[in-house]
Write a structure and sequence with these properties.
It contains 1 helix and 10 strands. The protein has 157 residues and is mainly beta. It has a single domain, classed as SET domain (Beta-clip-like, Beta Complex), CATH 2.170.270.10. It binds zinc ion (ZN).
Length: 157
């Protein structure tokens, strides 16, 4: 069942401002060590059936699909964490955790120490279920190991 939280949790370590890469970005308000909690990724939750039944237009980058196949739409009721942009060489990551009620929570945290004012990035590792080519999701993160796309790397085994 989709559930909208009444209040979003605070993200005091995150400031939203114009990004150097794309649109708005999230920036550290202070120096943070590695594995510092930035906040929970919040928003309206949808079941896989609800996701399939909707037209999402351009909102792809606010959608986060969890391991239990629920999807969080950060565009509705989300907090500052939804503004983290993608980078192929990120300084943050998203980790799942379970709360007392057994609900999957999505935590955003740093993976390396960051300085105050640093822009925060995660690797979106998008999957294009409709078979869109990687060029439909171009990446301009500018890191030396940039894949050129926000899609997840193709697994070669
Ligand atoms: Zn890149």
């Amino acid at each position: 069942m989709a559930k909208l939280r009444k209040h979003t949790s605070p993200t005091p370590c995150v400031r939203v401002a114009p990004s150097g890469v794309h649109g708005l970005g999230a920036f550290a308000t202070r120096a943070l060590p590695a594995f510092a909690l930035l906040g929970l990724y919040e928003g309206r939750r949808y079941s896989p059936q609800e996701v399939a039944a909707r037209t999402w237009d351009d909102q792809l980058t606010y959608l986060f699909t969890l391991s239990n196949q629920e999807t969080i739409d950060g565009a509705k009721g989300g907090n500052g964490t939804r503004h983290l942009n993608h980078a192929c060489d990120p300084n943050c990551e998203a980790v799942e955790e379970y709360d007392d009620a057994g609900q999957v929570l999505l935590k955003f945290q740093t993976i390396v120490p960051v300085e105050a004012g640093d822009e925060l990035f995660i690797d979106y590792c998008l999957t294009a279920d409709d078979g869109s080519p990687p060029s439909d999701y171009p990446c301009r993160c500018g890191s030396s190991n940039c894949r050129g796309t926000m899609l997840a790397p193709v697994e070669t085994s």
